[in-house]
Each structure stands twice: as structure tokens, then as C-alpha cells.
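Input C-alpha cells:
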């Protein structure tokens, strides 16, 4: 079968403390290199430095617009013999303009060409909401006639005249086909809420190709406890992006935003173990079985983020970290502009006071019925 060309799942023995076993049977490194916001001319060197530091997990995405440079860096390392393809775990993501089932394989083949790989270890649906379909691969944010955007899928009919709305189930069937074609070992989701995961979980029950991962923003100010419990019950591994609080996200940050790396409480926890705040933040995730993908271009920081598996945070310290965002979660991601799509995963977080009151009234009415 085609899937055999990309290797078999790991044996039944316990996974390494540095990896987590996916429902698909493959092992995923618990710490990886994030490449979101990594610029051209920098990301290739960062990938090479990370692999030389010991990283074996690289997180990519089509819409980051840097996969070609990452692919050139990987090829250089493969050609020099510094690393073998089967020693790496490479992730990428299906972008919002390619949710129609017919587009999934073509989009994945484009990513593979950019990365100069024959297969991915994990392919994720980047967001549950779809944009209007585009024919090529360069236009990531389609615009309306008046220049506003992004234009949603439901705002224009499909090529055959049928409604443009793309159900999650349709996209997921395209993802499953990519596994059967041998183009990716595992598939999963990104930025999905519990109801959206349940929608595609219903599809995968009949095919036996599991939802391996759900990648979401997470850190002590957004511990995602309920979502994590939901995913654990279904053997879905959670990956945390922005695990350090996205300190380099200048576009989204404001002066009033909390700084996790500058938090005195987190620094004090780290000092008690002889570790930095960043190391505490990484270990906060991996100790819960959550994959962390911090971004860095500095080899010393990369090495430090990886040098966390000897750290065992106490139950009290884990509880202290998780409690930071329990009362009022905080998101660093600037995603509120997508709230206009019915499949936006967390509209309640971006509600105005009036919208929050209306949402509460609707929920109360629903419960009363």
C-alpha cells in the first residue's frame, strides 16, 4: 500500500520521555522549532542551527511564506549527511483557501515541493474556517471587490454553482485521502474548538484514520485545561504554539500586554530549579504531555529550550502556573478579525460587553429549553 512508502508506525514499546505517541502510532518530539514569523534570510539558518542543537521536530505552514527556504536548509543537511529524513518530524498546515476536498492533495504536494520532501510526518488543517477558494497558491488572503477581506467561503458560490460554504467534514475527507496517498503519516487540526473536533471525529470513526493532533495557542495565561481534557479523552495530542507568550509578535503586542518571560513569579519558580523563565514555560507544557514549539533564531536559546527534560516541576508549581489564566484567560494571537465567520473557534473571547451579554442570554434560553 502507498502508506508503506513513508515508514511504519513505532513499535508498541513506551515512547521516549522526549516524545509523545500519537494515535496514528508514530512518535512526535515534545519540543519543536516554531517557524511562524521567521523571516526570509533567517529561517533557514534557524532550522539548521536547531537541528544541530538536537531538535528533531520542525513546525511549518504554507501561509508562513518561508517553506522554500526551510526546504533548502533541510536539503543542505540531508546532502551533507548531518541528518537523515527519517530522523526528523516535519509538520505543515493546509491553508484556508484550500478547504475543498479536491484542493487538499494539490496543496499538500505544493508544500512538499517547497520543503523538498517526499512526505510529511503531520499535516494539519490550519483553521476551521475557510476563505474563498483561490486557484493558485500565492493568494492567501482573497479580497472582496471593494478591497476588504479576507473573503469568506460562503460569500461566493463554487465553480459548479453550489454554495461556497465548505463543511469541516469535507476538508477532513481530503486530509484522510492524503494519508492513503502516502503524502503524510498523520493528520490533525489547528485552532479547533471541542465542537469542531467532535465534527471531524465523527468522520474518522468510520475510516480508522485518527485526529492525531490539535495545535492551539497555550501558555500559563491560556492553559486550555478543558480542551486538553477533551483531547486526552480522545487520544488527541495537543501542541502549544506561542508557548512563551509570543514575545516577538510586534504586530499584535501592546505595551499593556502581560509578559510571561518577564513575570516575577515564573522567574522565581525557575530560580528555585536553576532554570530560566523560558525553560519553565516549555516544561509546563511537556510535563502535561503537551508539545511545545517555541520559536528562536539564537542557538543558545534553542539549546536552553530543549534542555528542559531534567526539570520536574512540583505539583504546587504546576498548579500555580495553570492558575495564572484560570480566572481571565489571555490570548496573544490577533485573531478577532475572523470572528465574522461562523466557524471561528472562540468568538466569545473577542466579544464586546454587549455581545457577551447577548451570548449569555442565548445560552440561558437554550438551557431553559
Amino acid at each position: 500500500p502507498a502508506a508503506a512508502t513513508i515508514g511504519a508506525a513505532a513499535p508498541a514499546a513506551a515512547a521516549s520521555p522526549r516524545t509523545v505517541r500519537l494515535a496514528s502510532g508514530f512518535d512526535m518530539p515534545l519540543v519543536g522549532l516554531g517557524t511562524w514569523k521567521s523571516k526570509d534570510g533567517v529561517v533557514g539558518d534557524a532550522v539548521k542551527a536547531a537541528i544541530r542543537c538536537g531538535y528533531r521536530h520542525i513546525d511549518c505552514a504554507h501561509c508562513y511564506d518561508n517553506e522554500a527556504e526551510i526546504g533548502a536548509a533541510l536539503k543542505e543537511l540531508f546532502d551533507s549527511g548531518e541528518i537523515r529524513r527519517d530522523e526528523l518530524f516535519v509538520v505543515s498546515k493546509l491553508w484556508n483557501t484550500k478547504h475543498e476536498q479536491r484542493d487538499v492533495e494539490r496543496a499538500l504536494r505544493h508544500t512538499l515541493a517547497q520543503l523538498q520532501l517526499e512526505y510529511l510526518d503531520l499535516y494539519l488543517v490550519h483553521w476551521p474556517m475557510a476563505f474563498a477558494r483561490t486557484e493558485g497558491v500565492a493568494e492567501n488572503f482573497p479580497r472582496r471587490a471593494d478591497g476588504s477581506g479576507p473573503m469568506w467561503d460562503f460569500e461566493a458560490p463554487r465553480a459548479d454553482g453550489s454554495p461556497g460554504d465548505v463543511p469541516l467534514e469535507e476538508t477532513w475527507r481530503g486530509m484522510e485521502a492524503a494519508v492513503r496517498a502516502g503524502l503524510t503519516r498523520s493528520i490533525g487540526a489547528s485552532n479547533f474548538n471541542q465542537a469542531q473536533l467532535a465534527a471531524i471525529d465523527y468522520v474518522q470513526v468510520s475510516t480508522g484514520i485518527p485526529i492525531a493532533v490539535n495545535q492551539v495557542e497555550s501558555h500559563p495565561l491560556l492553559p486550555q485545561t478543558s480542551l486538553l481534557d477533551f483531547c486526552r479523552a480522545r487520544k488527541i495530542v495537543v501542541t502549544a504554539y506561542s508557548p512563551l507568550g509570543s514575545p516577538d509578535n510586534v504586530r499584535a503586542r501592546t505595551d499593556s500586554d502581560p509578559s510571561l518571560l518577564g513575570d516575577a513569579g515564573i522567574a522565581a519558580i525557575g530560580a528555585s530549579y536553576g532554570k530560566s523563565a523560558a525553560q519553565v514555560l516549555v516544561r509546563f507544557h511537556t510535563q502535561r504531555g503537551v508539545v511545545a514549539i517555541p520559536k528562536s533564531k539564537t542557538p543558545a536559546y534553542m539549546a536552553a529550550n530543549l534542555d528542559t527534560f531534567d526539570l520536574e516541576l512540583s505539583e504546587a508549581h504546576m498548579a500555580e502556573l495553570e492558575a495564572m489564566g484560570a480566572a481571565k484567560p489571555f490570548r496573544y494571537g490577533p485573531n478577532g478579525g475572523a470572528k465574522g465567520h461562523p466557524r471561528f473557534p472562540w468568538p466569545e473571547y473577542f466579544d464586546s460587553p454587549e455581545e457577551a451579554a447577548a451570548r449569555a442570554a442565548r445560552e440561558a434560553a437554550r438551557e431553559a429549553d
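The chain has a mean pLDDT of 90. The two ends are 51 Å apart (CA to CA).
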